[in-house]
Amino acid sequence: MERINAAFPFITYHAQSFNKEEMKTRTAELLSESCMRRSIREFSDEPVESELINQIISIAGTAPSGANKQPWSFCVVQNPVVKREIRLAAEAEEMRNYNGRMSDEWLRDLAPLGTDEHKPFLEKAPLLIVVFKRLFEFEADGTKHQNYYVSESVGIACGMLIHAIHHAGLCCLTHTPSPMNFLEKVLGRPSNERAFLLIPVGYPAKRVSVPDIRRKKPDEICFWYS
Ligand code: IYR
User: Fold this and answer.
1) Of the residues 95, 105, 106, 110, which should be mutated to test ligand 1's pocket, given the most ligand atoms within 8 Å of the CB?
2) From ligand 1's centre to the CA of 176, what distance in Å?
3) Which of 23, 50, 59, 161 has the maximal Cβ count within 10 Å?
4) How far is the CA of 34 from the centre of ligand 1 (A)?
5) ∠ CA 75-80-82 to the nearest 5 degrees?
6) Angle at the Cα of 170 (from 209 to 37), degrees rounded to 5?
7) How far apart are CA 130 and CA 83, in angstroms?
8) Which atom of ligand 1 is nearest to the CA of 106?
């Protein structure tokens, strides 16, 4: 449909187009690649090229967002002193979580994952991507502008980030130290930003073990109304 509004011009969108066979093959390939992704907690300290990280973050930046406000900031932490500061602060919070703040049910649910308050990966991984959500925007003169569906938008961007990391042949962990407001202070973020996820990224250590867990089957997660 033609839409004419000189103030807000539209451009023609050229969607990707595949035949039915290609659609099935591409989807099957993406599914098998997706099935191979696992969160890991043991990283190699081998560095990762900055250009690759820039591209991965650019992929996350293609996520849809409320009113296209793109309410996210991705901080890439490579500096070992800053990584150490983040590890110490995260471990201090987690120490309190594992020793009183988490319910017995929560601790029982985490038992199969083998997690505890020690977070060596926050120093070992060559980089940490700290994702911040931007609650609103400031203009230079201090005027505030609203963002919309901020958590939804940033959550989608993080999903795409994690998938791009995996697609590149790297590994990551979605780490959620709680509370994580220390990240705003350590990284000196502006007052409109809140820490959303802490994602250590790198190559896996030589031998990595992961919990033997299964994913829900399509009929457990998908409900058709035909
Ligand atoms: N944030 C803690 C605890 C934790 C919570 C959940 I839910 C997990 O899936 C895994 C861990 C930690 O990182 O140890």
Assistant:
1) 110
2) 6
3) 161
4) 22
5) 50
6) 55
7) 11
8) 7
> CB within 8 A of 43, min separation 6: which ones?
121, 124, 125, 126, 171, 200, 202, 203, 204, 205
Rounded Cα–Cα distance for residues 29 and 158 (Å): 22
The per-residue pLDDT for range 152-184, each reduced to its tens digit, is 999 999 999 999 999 999 999 999 999 999 999
**CA-CA-CA-CA torsion sign (112, 117, 118, 119):** positive
Q: Which residues line ligand 1 (CB under 6 A)?
A: 94, 97, 110, 113, 115, 175-178
What is the distance in A from the centroid of ligand 1 to the CA of 106? 9
Q: Give me the sheet containing 193-202, strands edge to edge.
A: 72-77, 127-134, 193-202, 171-172
Please give the Cα distance from 138 to 130 (Å, whole number). Answer: 21
* Closest residue by CA, ligand 1 atom 2: 177
pLDDT in tens, 33-92: 999 999 999 999 999 999 999 999 999 999 999 999 999 999 999 999 999 999 999 999
